[in-house]
Amino acid sequence: MKSHSCNPKRSVFIILTAVILMLTTAVNNAFCQAQLEPWGNITGIRNHGQLFDFESGIKVVSTDPKHVSTTAKEKQQPHYRRIADDEQEVTTWIDNLLFKENVKDDGTGKIKVTIQMTAHKDTVLQGVYFFVTLPESFLNSNLRYDDGNKPELNHLVKAAGVEYDDNARQIEFELDDRKLSVQPDEKSLIMVRTMLVNNRKQIFLYIPLKLGGITNGEVVEKQFSIKTSADIDKTPVLLTLNTSQQGRAFDGLGGNFRLQNPKTDPQVIDYCLQNLRVAQGRVEMPWSFWQPELNTDPTVAATSGGIHPAVKKAMEMAHHLDSIGIPVILSAWFPPDWAAEGKLNFRPVNGVWGNKLNKNNMDAIYKSIADYIIYLKNKYGTEVKLFSFNESDLGINIKVTAQEHDDFIKGCGAYFAAHGLKTKMLLGDNSDATTYQFIYPALNDPDARQYIGGVSFHSWRGWDNVTLKKWADAANQLGVPLLVGEGSIDAAAYSYPDIFQEQNYALQEINLYTRLLAICQPASILQWQLTADYSPLIGGGIFGNTEPLHPGQRFWNLKQLSITPKGLFAMPITGNKPVVSCAALGDNTKGVYAVHLVNNGATGKVILTGLPVRLKRFDIYITSKELNMKKGHLLRVNNGSVTFELPATSYVTLISG
């Protein structure tokens, strides 16, 4: 064998080239990334933080066209994981079909999507499709099939109002500077349709994974390349604050402390209480353990040492919050048998959740709840501020009608008052913002008003401005605080907990909180939870992660929100870019102001005007995937205006000095 002498210059060149390629790949991957939801739908590709939005999914169509199943939030039971910095994976079932979806970034605005489908039963189908939905604006786009069978489609044509089918290697949509192309791994049938969705016309692109039936054990695999491109929007963000209007006060971030994980809850609770300013706390009343039998006195049993361990721990949790100055909200989930109609339902029966209260035992129900609150006060010195049934509009796990909710507020509220309790009733505590009609009977009942101490909803669903505004209006009508009793964005996230570490989840969550501050003006947003359940911390054995316990991006978002000075009032703030959510709070008497901004786009300059002329400076804090509530350079305010940089995909808070 002939030997080759080593060329030192050539070796150095090769090494430098490899290093440059590695660094370039790392930088590109940081700038361009697919936004994958844990149920398998891709909702866009980010380039330098700017999102090119579209939505992909998988659709299974049976021979009956009315029977169609699509990957979507809370429709399946998916499993999500991140394999690498540039690779994510979702597995999910639709009927008897198992789907494994792999999404890999290449860092240049292009992603590779691999879908593997395995049949676990002979199934007759019309077809299974990978689809992409484009924004409404793309109705005016140009459309091109590359290397299609129809020559007239191999050049740009208008997409709007026309249906296209062709066998082609690629399809491309182009609108001004924006382009999106989808390329199957082999020449394939490609279908374009325009459809009405929520009264809006949209473009749908369908590519079959399999047409016709599929047999047990059959495996089908397809790959698609999706590429986007668009100019980065570098125009400044213009914000205007109106300090002449002061709305309702924001007490600060709150938290839920329902104990469910004895081994891992304490470490998270301790960390959160030591590192966050928590303004409100919500705890559980383990009612079914407090008084399991109708004809027993729970106070006597507790006093004689017969208190159930779950009740004792819940009371100690309430006392701990109260002892450090955090007002306590008490909520009941599970009723005892005697307080409910029929056999207790812990899962939906025929699609119906929960149990109704036993109307024959209403006086005993009022007494049982009041006895708990009185014992908590006498034994621990803790007075409950508000009481509710958790999500009783839905039945988690007590179910009442809107009128029954009104009747309970009056009945239980009157019982509390007659027995010297300061505890008020919480109107609503609804499962979602969307079920606002549930509160209307009590809201409009003059006899109920004296017993209502607050209004509450949970933020899992119903994020549009019109719906959220209804809750603000309800609180204004009664003149009581509004609470977001459970704050977060995905009620099923506990089943795919890797999503808690994703930048996309953290950004969506704090973006919603910023909108809630601006639209609803709540007294507090109570995070679900500040325990191991939906934990904002990572590791410590939670969800099987054995890393040392440490804060994630979601925790830093919460900490940054929690530094808002207590008692500032909501103030209107407007902006020129929908990708930047903003909320402002202030107190003109004290001369203190706070502005919260969530940037869903690229890095850009912000010009904030409308500030009081006497205001001279702001401290700035930034949280992102890379920055953990980093305090930036002091911002100088000049004649009511301040200019600063808003980093890409970040949460930024300004607090006046």
Task: Explain what this protein looks like in three dimensions.
- It is a single chain.
- By secondary structure, the protein is of the alpha+beta class.
- It contains twelve helices and 40 strands.
- The chain has a nine-stranded antiparallel β-sheet with strand order 6-7-8-9-18-15-14-11-12, with no helix packed on it.
- The protein is globular and about 85 Å long.
- It has three domains: 15-229, Beta-galactosidase, Chain A, domain 5; 233-246 and 567-657, Immunoglobulin-like; 252-566, Alpha-Beta Barrel (TIM Barrel).
- Mean pLDDT is 93; it is low at 1-30.
- A hairpin with a 2-residue loop joins strand 6 and strand 7 (87-94).
- 22% of the residues lie in helices and 35% in strands.
| Average predicted confidence as pLDDT | 93
If classified by CATH, what would the architecture of the largest domain be? Alpha-Beta Barrel
When the domains are counted, the total is 3
Characterize the largest beta sheet: strand count, sense, and whether it forms a barrel: 9 strands, antiparallel
Output the CATH homologous superfamily of the largest domain.
Answer: Glycosidases
Strand content: 35-45%
Number of strands: 40
Please, how many helices?
A: 12
Taken from the alpha-carbon principal axes, the silhouette is: globular
Q: Return Rg in Å.
A: 28 Å
CATH class of the largest domain: Alpha Beta
- Rounded to the nearest angstrom, the distance between the terminal CA atoms is 76 Å
Structural class: alpha+beta
Into which percent range does the helicity of residues fall? Answer: 10-25%
Order of strands, main sheet, comes to 6-7-8-9-18-15-14-11-12
Protein name: O-Glycosyl hydrolase
Keywords: Signal
InterPro entries: GH (IPR017853), Glyco_hydro_b (IPR013780)
Signal peptide: 1-30
